[in-house]
Design goal:
alpha+beta; Helix Hairpins; Heat Shock Protein 90; four-stranded antiparallel beta sheet; 10 helices; HATPase_C_sf
């Protein structure tokens, strides 16, 4: 289907090259045709003029010898154009010629003043005209035949660079979607052309992004592991402090730091691909309702016809909890959670997701905009990573009536 759509796309580079070749061939054929036509016509008229001159010379010779010649025309029987040329003819060349291009019976006239009277003869040029017309028809016919062969061949020849460009475009789309292992594998074969250069640039960009992402992931994992040991000491020390307002504040901040470190460790495990789902049949509506209850946050829960699913309830609970917390933290009430089929949707009535998040997905340590409120930007990143472990898809959009809308689509049982 994609190949057919590409073939029918008139804006494709293939058809633009074919159109350019067609225009160039038409221009060459028209130029050559006009040149050949003009050259053939001039040669034909010159030969006709020589024949008419010879015929006039013989006719005047017979007329001077015998006094009569039926081939000669004189006086008013001559065309006005020929008479005008005879009056203007140079003295060094007393013979004037004129081509009567009447389509029915074209003729070449040759005239001369003889004893003060104009005399002329004409030569039939019909066969010559038919020969020129036949030559023109053959030229246009074979030019059209050549176009019918050259244009499809040019479209086929343009398919090779077009195919290579499509491969580069597919690779770029995969990289944009997050597949940093995608490469063009163009294998320039020593061509060294522009397409090979573009392919090499895309591959180099993917290598650079892959290296930067790996560096970021290693840094995240190293920071989380290095913070874990002193954090445990802080948790223990805060538990030994005497009760009081200052102690509550310290314990609250230590709890926030502990949650951050745990989230960083979870992200590092997701990045490393170390997480594995333990799938089993679960009652989807009940699991989602229990997750809402454990968050302790208000949400309007509705459940329709639920399809049987096999999933990891612990990871599903993590996804739902993060989505609900994000809706309360960055959106506005009421928060609505709906289960229908194998799909879970969470919607708030705030300002919606920022455009950057919709375009590129959630990014760690980025909430998208200042008005989105406080947070580290890890909740949605973890939710998407856990959805990927479950084989589910997590999509973010803005609801038509306003507010952010997160849609989790779980694979059906047995998928």
């Amino acid at each position: 289907m994609d190949t057919l759509r590409s073939l029918l796309n008139w804006r494709s580079l293939r058809w633009r090259i074919a159109l350019l070749v067609c225009v160039a061939c038409c221009a060459v054929a028209l130029t050559i045709g006009l040149l050949v036509h003009a050259s053939t016509r001039d040669r034909s008229l010159n030969e006709g003029a020589v024949k008419a001159r010879n015929a006039l010379s013989l006719a005047l010779e017979r007329y001077g010898r015998d006094g009569t010649d039926r081939d000669l025309s004189a006086g008013s029987a001559l065309p006005d154009e020929l008479l005008s040329r005879l009056r203007d003819q140079r003295s060094d060349d007393p013979v004037a010629t004129w081509y009567d291009s009447t389509p029915v019976r074209p003729r070449m006239w040759a005239g001369q003043l003889y004893h003060g009277q104009p005399y002329a003869v004409n030569v039939d040029m019909t066969l010559d005209l038919l020969s020129r017309n036949a030559l023109d028809r053959h030229m246009w016919k074979y030019s059209a035949l050549a176009l019918a062969v050259v244009v499809p061949l040019s479209a086929l020849a343009a398919e090779l660079p077009n195919r290579r460009l499509r491969r580069v475009a597919r690779t770029a789309r995969r990289i944009s979607a997050g597949d940093l292992d995608a490469r063009t594998a163009a294998g320039g074969g020593g061509r060294g052309d522009e397409v090979t250069e573009i392919s090499a640039t895309v591959d180099a960009m993917a290598d650079s992004l892959h290296d930067r992402l790996e560096t970021e992931q290693r840094f995240t994992a190293d920071v989380a592991h290095e913070l874990r040991t002193p954090l445990m000491g802080l948790v223990t020390a805060s538990g030994l402090l005497p009760e009081g307002e200052a102690t509550d504040l310290v314990r609250d901040r230590v709890g926030v730091l502990r949650t951050l470190v745990e989230e960083l460790l979870e992200i590092s495990r997701l990045d490393a691909g170390a997480e594995r789902a333990e799938l089993r049949p679960v009652p989807l509506a009940e699991v989602v309702a229990d997750s809402l209850a454990r968050t302790g946050l208000a949400a309007r829960f509705t459940a329709g016809a639920v399809a049987p699913v096999e999933t990891d309830p612990r990871r599903l609970d993590r996804i739902v909890a993060n989505l609900v917390v994000n809706a309360h933290r960055h959106g506005r009430a009421p928060v609505e959670v709906e289960v229908a089929g194998a799909t879970v949707t969470v919607r708030d009535h705030g300002d919606g997701f920022p455009r950057d998040l919709l375009a590129h997905g959630p990014q760690r340590f980025r909430t998208g905009a200042a008005e989105r409120g406080r947070g580290h930007g890890l909740g949605l990143t973890i939710a998407r990573g856990q959805a990927r472990v479950l084989g589910a898809s997590l999509e973010f959009a803005n609801a038509p009536g306003g507010g952010a809308l997160a849609t989790l689509r779980l694979p059906p049982a047995g998928a």
